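Narrative of accomplishments. A recurring question from our advisory board has been how the design workflow behaves on a single, concrete structure rather than in aggregate. To address it, we present the structure tokens for one chain from the evaluation set, followed by the sequence designed for it. No filtering or post-editing was applied between the two.
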């Protein structure tokens, strides 16, 4: 059985301390949580940066501190978010990638709506972000909220801005974009090139069922407080608990949990 790569999306841009006492906000908190999640089975840490007040920021210095602390303490693959919650400006979003040259970064290849914001990613924006990643030797994780975003990712390959095999993350369950259903996941997983790898990120209460389905399909799984604050209804989770639970699901499904070194091979990092 192919090993399963577990990604932990540690903090995101949205969850606050008021919403969960377990959301890591400072670089130190994020790195400490990353260590626990590595021990629980995570191979990739997907990270956002927050300022001193806990608000989302694109400050490259804060991203660099998070990256340095995690890589000093673990062998995790650090995946930097280029999301636009703090600012939609493409150059500001690309700057941490240019500065840090991380192994991976997220790349949303189109526009959609969040419940409280239009998430505008024009072709120009996507191109600037992809150029920064190509120049830095950073592998993009294509964040797919809508099927059409797959075509945009493939267009980046045609333009010489991304190299195959691609890696996709299907983000399912956001209101107003692709719903979190088995049918949608099957459709998306069959809509990417055969050589590509994929992860599913089910939002909120969809995190667990989507992860279980992906486990049986041979896909990879993202969990974490960015996408879901609860272990079960009414009970808040820690990142470590969410990773550990998915590692147990993997064990029952006879899928070995990939170490970061194995994940690097599966994702063709550094090649
Ligand atoms: Zn994110």
């Amino acid at each position: 059985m192919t090993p399963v790569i577990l990604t932990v999306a540690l903090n995101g841009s949205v969850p606050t301390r008021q919403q969960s006492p377990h959301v890591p906000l400072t670089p130190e908190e994020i790195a400490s949580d990353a260590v626990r999640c590595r021990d629980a089975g995570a191979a990739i840490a997907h990270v956002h940066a927050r300022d001193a007040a806990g608000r989302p920021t694109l400050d490259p210095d804060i991203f660099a501190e998070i990256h340095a602390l995690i890589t000093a303490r673990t062998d995790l693959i650090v995946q930097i978010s280029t999301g636009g919650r703090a600012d939609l400006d493409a150059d500001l979003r690309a700057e941490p990638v240019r500065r840090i040259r991380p192994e991976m970064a997220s790349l949303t290849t189109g526009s959609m709506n969040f419940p409280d914001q239009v998430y505008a990613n024009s072709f120009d924006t996507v191109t600037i972000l992809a150029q920064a990643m190509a120049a830095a030797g950073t592998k993009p994780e294509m964040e797919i909220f809508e099927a059409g975003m797959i075509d945009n990712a493939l267009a980046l390959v045609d333009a010489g801005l991304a190299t195959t095999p691609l890696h996709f993350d299907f983000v399912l369950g956001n209101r107003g974009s692709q719903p979190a259903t088995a049918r949608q996941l099957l459709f998306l997983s069959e809509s990417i090139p055969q050589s590509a790898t994929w992860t599913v990120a089910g939002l909120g209460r969809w995190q667990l069922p989507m992860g279980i389905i992906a486990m049986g399909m041979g896909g990879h799984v993202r969990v974490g407080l960015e996408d879901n604050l609860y272990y079960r209804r009414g009970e808040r989770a820690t990142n470590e608990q969410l990773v550990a639970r998915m590692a147990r699901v993997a064990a029952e499904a006879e899928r070995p949990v990939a170490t970061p070194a194995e994940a690097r091979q599966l994702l063709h990092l550094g090649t």
